[in-house]
């Protein structure tokens, strides 16, 4: 099992990922005053970017403690969460520009 990720200890990588997740859970793309979001988009924009970083933190830790297969699964979960977040963000930006 690997104790480092690109030469950085996995615990430090996980701590950085958790810090980014916490920051994003606090500061997230809030809707403008005249903008109303569908529930699915509001949930994805509120939680999925932070979820991406949590999944990456868990993937980094699992490299050392649980094995490569678990790390790969968690990495894919993070990727899926990020792709859903980006799709919702682009849809949100597009709908905000339309009159």
Structural class: mainly alpha
Percentage of β-strand residues: under 5%
Distance between the termini: 54 Å
Helix fraction by DSSP (H/I, runs of at least 4):
over 70%
Give the count of structural domains: 1
- What's the number of extended β-strand segments? 2
Q: Give the ordered list of helices and strands.
A: EEHHH
Q: Please count the helical segments.
A: 3
What Rg do the Cα atoms give? 16 Å
Shape from CA axes? elongated
Biggest β-sheet description: 2 strands, antiparallel
* Mean pLDDT figure: 89
| Sheet with most strands: strand arrangement | 1-2
Low-confidence stretches: none
What tags apply to this protein structure?
3 helices; elongated; mainly alpha; 4% strand; 99 residues; 2 strands
What report would you give on this structure?
With 99 residues, the protein is mainly alpha-helical. The protein has one domain. It has helices at residues 10-26, 39-65, 68-97, and strands at 4-5, 8-9. A two-stranded antiparallel ribbon has the order 1-2. The longest helix is centred in the C-terminal third of the chain and has 30 residues, at 68-97. It is elongated, with a radius of gyration of 16 Å. The model has no long low-confidence stretch (mean pLDDT 89).
Give a short overview.
This protein has one domain (about 5-95). Helix content is about 75%, strand content about 5%.
């Amino acid at each position: 099992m690997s104790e480092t990720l690109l030469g950085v200890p996995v615990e430090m990588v996980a701590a950085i990922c958790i810090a980014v997740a916490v920051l994003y859970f606090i500061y997230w793309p809030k809707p403008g005053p005249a903008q109303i979001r569908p529930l699915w988009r509001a949930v994805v924009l509120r939680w999925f970017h932070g979820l991406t970083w949590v999944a990456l933190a868990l993937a980094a830790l699992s490299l050392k403690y649980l094995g490569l297969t678990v790390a790969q699964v968690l990495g894919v979960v993070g990727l899926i969460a990020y792709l859903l977040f980006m799709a919702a963000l682009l849809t949100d930006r597009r709908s905000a520009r339309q009159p």
